[in-house]
C-alpha cells in the first residue's frame, strides 16, 4: 500500500475540532511564494497550483520511467500529500496574521509536502523534467522548502473558508488559556492544510487544518 502521510500522522492531518497545542517536526515541501487574493480567477495563486502538483506528481511517477536517470534512491510509493498554505500580512514592516477583509494584501507560500527521499538533486531533476514538458511554465518559481514549524495551536475547521475567523478566534483564545501567546514573525505564519477539494465538496463540508505559531507567555 502507498504510504499516506495523512493516515500515518493523524495528529498533524486529522486533528479534532477542539484546539490543541502540538509540536510539528521539520519537513520538506515543493513551494511557490506570491502575493494577492487567492480567490482571484486566473490570478497568481491559481496558476501556481499547476506547478506545485506538476512537480509533485513528476516525483511520484518517477518509478514508472524507463530512464535510469529518473530513478530515485530510497524511493517508496506514497500518496501525494494535501495542498498547504502559509499566509501573512505586513503592517509597518512587521509580519502579522491575516485580515480576511484585505485578501488582496495577503502574502503566501503555497506548498505540498515531499517524501524524505527527495534531495536537492532529486528536486532539481524533477523541476527540469516538468519544464521540458511545460515550457510555458516558469518553473524557477518553485523551490525546495525546509520548514521547521515547531510549537503551534492547531484545530480542524469544518465549513466555508470565509467562516474561518470564528474558528481562529476560538483557537487563539484556547492558546491564551493554556499559557501561550501568538508568535507570528519570520518563518512563523498562519498555516492552513486543505483536506478537501473545493471543486468537488460543498462549502459546508470543507475540512481545513488551521495552525497558529505560539510560544509560552513567560518567554
UniProtKB/TrEMBL annotation:
It comes from the Bacteria. Residues 18-215 form the GyrI-like small molecule binding domain. It holds the Pfam family GyrI-like. Signal peptide: none annotated. InterPro entries: GyrI-like, GyrI-like_CCH_Lin2189-like, Reg_factor_effector_dom_sf. This is Transcriptional regulator.
Amino acid at each position: 500500500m502507498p504510504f499516506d502521510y495523512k493516515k500515518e500522522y493523524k495528529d498533524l492531518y486529522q486533528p479534532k475540532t477542539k484546539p490543541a497545542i502540538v509540536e510539528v517536526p521539520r519537513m520538506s515541501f515543493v513551494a511557490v511564494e506570491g502575493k494577492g487574493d487567492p480567490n482571484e480567477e486566473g490570478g497568481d495563486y491559481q496558476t501556481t497550483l499547476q506547478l506545485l502538483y506538476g512537480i509533485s506528481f513528476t516525483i511520484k511517477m518517477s518509478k514508472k520511467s524507463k530512464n535510469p536517470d529518473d530513478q530515485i534512491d530510497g524511493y517508496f510509493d506514497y500518496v501525494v500529500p494535501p495542498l498547504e498554505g502559509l499566509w501573512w500580512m505586513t503592517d509597518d514592516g512587521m509580519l502579522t496574521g491575516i485580515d480576511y477583509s484585505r485578501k488582496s494584501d495577503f502574502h503566501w507560500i503555497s506548498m505540498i509536502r515531499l517524501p524524505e527521499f527527495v534531495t536537492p538533486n532529486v528536486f532539481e531533476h524533477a523541476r527540469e523534467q516538468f519544464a521540458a514538458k511545460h515550457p510555458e511554465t516558469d518553473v524557477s518559481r518553485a523551490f525546495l522548502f525546509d520548514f521547521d514549524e515547531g510549537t503551534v495551536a492547531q484545530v480542524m475547521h469544518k465549513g466555508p473558508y470565509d467562516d474561518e475567523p470564528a474558528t481562529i478566534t476560538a483557537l487563539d483564545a484556547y492558546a491564551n488559556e493554556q499559557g501561550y501567546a501568538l508568535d507570528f514573525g519570520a518563518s512563523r505564519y498562519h498555516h492552513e492544510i486543505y483536506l478537501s477539494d473545493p471543486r468537488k465538496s460543498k462549502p459546508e463540508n470543507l475540512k481545513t487544518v488551521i495552525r497558529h505559531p505560539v510560544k509560552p507567555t513567560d518567554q
